[in-house]
User: What shape does this take?
Amino acid sequence: MITIPEIQPIGEFLFPEKEVSTLSNGCSLSIIPFGPEEMVRIDCVVGTGPLYQSHFFVASFTHKLMREGTLHHTSKEISEMLDFYGASFVSNTMDNHTVFTLLTLKKHLKVMLDLFYEILFEPTFPENEFELMLASERQSFKMNESRVSVMANRGLKRCVYGENGTSGKAPKEEDYDTLTLDQIRSFYQQYYVINNCQFFLSGNIGAEVREALNARFGSISLVDGYQKEEPEYVIFPSAEKKLFMPKEDSVQSAIFVGRRLFNLTHPDFHKVSVLNTILGGYFGSRLMSNIREDKGYTYGINSILRRTSKEVLSVIATQAANQYVHPLLEELYKEMDRLCNELVPKEELETVKNYMLGDVLRSADGSFTVVDAYIGMTLEQLDLPKFFHEKTLAIQSVTSEELLELAKMYYRKEDYYEVIAGKLS
Assistant: This one.
């Protein structure tokens, strides 16, 4: 006889304890131990990104080109070393920081730390690699620019932040013509200094791992008097609430509806997340049930709370055949009106709560996922265990009455920008 396990309520999250330390030179070091596996992960976070660049693409080209050649190894040799030692190296840039991640077997730590050091502090930015990357990135840009979803997304940024706002400016293909290696090298010299770095060490951590990391990066001298100039962040929101971006050969149109909300520390954030999920945050949401399942206007529609370095945006996005754009928007706004005028039924709210609590568990499932969460929260100056605890409590305790009041504050359709890219029937 099969015994079905009892359903247990979700309790307290137990995260591995983060140790806050420094390298010998004073650089910030966070240590997050996990697992018996003989793996070590090192993340170096550099405090720079697109918000600091004076020319489009400089920030992304900088971190991508850094692994394309160093003082001691060519791009080909770097790739061969990573393959030979079974290691991985990735880099990614966001608004105001760039993350470099090395994952390696513990027994190969020394040689991989040396390579990691070369990529971070001894790149040569070869001209031939720059030209190859320039051609490749330009081609990708041209292909993406023809997609209505990309057009609508950029159009929404233009509306929310303003065409001349810091986050509202959009690159053009011509910007590749004026991108130079000198700009990239200058950007690197200005921001890629040890003073502007913080390190995260995770995995099977012992004294020998700490000593190896400190020997390689703690011996770098800080730059005397280094001060990073913070960029001005300006917003010029559009007075017009609707924007149409024509693309005559398109058989589908992209629809983006959105607005600015608040930052991650706002007391309403977690409970508004529940509202967002009810509206369009999972497969059984109201938008999916109405617009996809019932009306058949689209294959998919979702509502997200998009986090940026400065704030949270509420964004509803979908694509539909041109003839369905207007009826789809009508149904979308009906669902927003329902949130603002009707209590969420108890059964629906319980379903969403259970879904979201399960999603919270999934977001903390796995060692690397937890490390990613720790890095993200640290960069946003938030305490990870406290954040998850508050999120869980908010989901469990929120009522239909609270959600109705929050909807009236944050989901009034007249507060949202509407962007359509494509061809209207």
Notes: The chain has a mean pLDDT of 93. The chain has 14 helices and eleven strands. The CA atoms of residues 39 and 204 lie 6 Å apart.
